[in-house]
Amino acid sequence: MESPSPMTSSATITQRDQLMVEMKVAEIYHLFASLPHHAQTLMLELQRDNHVEFLTKGLKQLGPNYGVLDANRPWLCYWILHSIALLGDFIDCKLENDTVDFLNRCQLPHLATTYAAVNSLITLGGERALSSINREKLHGFLLRMKDPSGGFRTKIRRSSAIEVDLTWVLNRRTSYVKINVVVSDYSYMPKIAEAARVVWLFLLCSMSLADLSLHLVLRSWLGLYLCLPQLPTISFPCGEMDVRACYTAISVASVLDILDYELVQNVGNYILSCQTYEGGIAGEPGSEAHGGYTFCGLATMILINEVERLDLPSLLEWVVFRQGVECGFQGRINKLVDGCYSFWQGGACALMQRLHSVVVGQLHAKVKKTVENTDSIQTPNLSDLENVPGASSTGSGGMPITDSVLKLSDIGFSFIKEQIELDPLFHSIALQQYILLCSQVQDGGFRDKPGKQRDHYHTCYCLSGLSVSQHCWSKDVDCSPLPKAIFGPYSNLLERTHPLFNIVLDRYHEAHDFFSGQ
Amino acid sequence: MSSDEDERIPLPERPEWADVKPIPQDDGSNPVVPIAYKEEFRETMDYFRAVYASDERSPRSLGLTVEAIKLNPGNYTVWHFRRLVLEKLGSDLHDELDFVNSIAKSNSKNYQIWHHRRWVAERIGIEAASLELEFTKEIFSLDAKNYHAWSHRQWVLQALGGWENELDYCDELLEEDIFNNSAWNQRYFVVTRSPLLGGLESMREAEVKYVVKAILSNPGNESPWRYLRGLYKGDTHALIHNPEVSSVCLEVLKEKKNCVFPLSLLLDLLCYGLQPNEEFSNVVEALRPSNSGPPEVNLKKTICSVLETLDPLRSNYWIWRKNNLLPSSEV
After folding, report:
1. CA A481, A472, A301, A456 torsion-angle sign
2. Residue A123 and residue A333: Cα distance in Å, rounded?
3. Alpha-carbon distance B179 to A14, whole Å?
4. Where are the residues of the annotated region Disordered (chain B) (predicted)?
5. Residue A2: exposure state from Cβ atoms within 10 A (0-12, 13-18, ≥19)
6. Phi-psi region for residue B147, left (φ > 0), alpha (ψ -120 to 50) or beta?
7. Beta strand pairing status for A233-241 and A153-160?
């Protein structure tokens, strides 16, 4: 195999695409370097007013092209509200009330949109928004979304346990009725068989009824016969099952203080099965490691207190290697940089900073294990790593927790209370440079990369990543970052976000007080 | 405007819909994130809401979902209802695959389409395997790294079969683009999970040969380096005992002094207890900048220091690694 140079025509698609992006980014950085100091400062400035204007405008009106996001309007709310909160701004009272009304009006049969709606309401904050969340109902909903295997599915399918289905079959001579009884709950089977005979007799008497009303009459009659006031409906999870679904379920439950062991059961096994040979986490077992799923998987494992089960040194190395020459992050190996990974990968790095003792414990255990095994040939496995000092005896926050008193919903709270023991392991200044110079659109909003259009999704996750990279040097959540941690003017400083839920910290605290006090 | 749109007859003007009363979207009096829907969009969704509310699982409902999906393939409720209608009508699922084909080509990054496709293929059963493998192949000819398409393909292989040519297909894709990490991942998937192959350990020797060749052709390509480590996942003992692993690192470093991947692998090998030979030490020592003072006593520390300057974007990481090397006495 000859090594093709990216400049020649024999370069592969990956090489050509990568080169194009590198050239565009380099052009921007060269221009920046050539500018006088004051012009540079101007270019690095976060265009707060323009961003807020772009975001608020979206909250009030979106163009017809947004039709494809029609089913994701709670997501649009979250992206916009969270961005505005990161910028330290607010929306006016009326718009706030309208948003609460809208979110409560949305029927949310989908897990991911539920996450978006809950995070939106918490970001709005205040009695009206927070008390509008029916936690008991949500807990039941989340339980119903759970797949027997342990993972979560994004949608639920509700169907009647007994479907009575009538078809008039027209024959040249006679017309007759074909009755289909579909039984989802087999415990009704014997009774149904018995009922079938009676149904026939009943039908003979009601031939005059129209198709639809006959259907309805028959349904309720069957319910009556089975001594059920209404035909029971059963619901079972459907929709895709992946790491994102697990994260949205666990995150919602944790932030609302309704996370329990029933919800958590087997989730850890599922996430663990998605960690790939590359070190990162995939959406499903066997798939490729991916930035979005890595954040979701890691955050989930922390929230359910099982993070030690992941191979953290490999995960860490995979994540830090996703930051590239463009200074931003890519989502997968050999893919192009994208501003949204500023949060997914940068956020995962921020989480790792708080797992220092567990990572180091695993790193050393790996080493010791191999050395010991050089004589007695044994393969180390992950369960051995759980015996590492500092792993099983401590919770995710590095705080000693005994399982008997551990309240799962407290993990998200205690996780950020601890002092950070570790400097960030990615290049936080370089990341800020990419976000400000390559993703920021001067007229407001952020984009994937130069040449792409701005949108609310990228605005949300570029700003979230910017916030993470500005605050990652402060050891304590209550400390303001030093000027040297901020790229560009200090006025670029954003509000701090909770790295597990991606909710601005003081809004998170308000919600935590509200729900834990209930 | 395409001719399709010109020919569209508004739903209220179609006689077959005369009996249906459309249900407008109930957004309340002051909606937020309101979308200025096109008339066609609004009208289609109003009629969709009506058949959805009356749970009318009829041929005309099925047709209406086609129109709604074309306007917004991301609406999971429409897809969901379509499945209910398909079930009720006992529709030909091969036709359904054709329909998804037409939608998927231009919306290949949409979750709902792939979920729907899986549902259809599952119902068709094993005869769908070859169709689905062919379909994902077509998607990869446009976008060889499409995440959903790869997930779908893996599901097809596991649920419906068709493993026979999968390793060859990986070869083919890697030949086209050796940087395609999705193809490397698929290769790993096949090697570790194909029921026709003997599993990772029996494939390891051949795979190491394959991956070493790929590394030597493009040492700056991260994919094969990760793949090489992956071949020894959970078995660091075997990793340090295969001389081919350290020798490919040294070979690359002799040619390409600034290559990060072989250095980071050498670091891990040392951490796992590999005893460096003289060649190893010489190659690493040669990478130290001449003005960097007295040599470090420890080869692992030397590598960390070299990486710290060679790879400034990750200097924090390499410093952290250096600070957390286990002292030799503890090993």
Report:
1. positive
2. 34
3. 6
4. 1-29
5. exposed
6. alpha
7. antiparallel
CB contact under 8 A, A371 and B272: yes
- B182: closest chain A residue by CA: A288
Whether residue B276 contacts residue B270, with contact meaning beta carbons closer than 8 Å, is answered with yes
With beta carbons under 8 A apart, name residues in chain A contacting B221. 334
Alpha-carbon span A124 to A197, nearest angstrom? 59
Question: Where does residue B115 rank: exposed (0-12), middle (13-18), buried (19+ CB within 10 A)?
Answer: buried
Q: The tokens of A255 are what?
A: 């932030």
Q: Which tokens hold the place of A126?
A: 């205040």
Please identify which residue in the block is written with the tokens 């991260």.
B222
Q: What is the ipTM of this complex?
A: 0.95
Measured CA to CA, the distance from residue A135 to residue A137 in angstroms comes to: 5
Tell me the per-residue pLDDT of A351-378, one tens digit each, with 9 for 90 and over: 999 999 999 999 988 777 766 655 443 3
Q: Where are the alpha helices (DSSP H) in B111-146?
A: 111-124, 128-142
Backbone dihedral angles phi then psi of residue B33, each to the nearest 5 degrees: 35, 45
Judge contact between A369 and B234, C-beta under 8 A: no
Cβ contacts (< 8 Å) between A3 and chain B: which residues? 217-218
Of B137, B131, B247, B135, give the one whose Cα is nearest residue B183.
B137
Residues 6+ apart with CB under 8 A from B314: A320, A321, A323, A425, A426, A427, B307
Q: Which three-class secondary structure state does DSSP give residue A234?
A: strand
**What is the pLDDT, as a whole number, of residue A156?**
65
Give pLDDT, residue A380.
36
Q: Which residue of B has its CA nearest to A280?
A: B226
Pick from A73, A372, A108, A45: nearest CA to A248: A108
For B257, the token pair is 């002094």
B139-144 contacts, C-beta under 8 A, 24 or more apart: B139/B104, B139/B105, B139/B108, B140/B173, B142/B105, B142/B108, B143/B108, B144/A13, B144/B173, B144/B176, B144/B177, B144/B180, B144/B182, B144/B183
A·B CB contacts under 8 A: 221
- Identify the segments of chain A with pLDDT beneath 70: 1-9, 107-109, 156-239, 370-405
Nearest-CA neighbor of B71 among A64, A483, A427, A300?
A64
pLDDT, position B27:
87
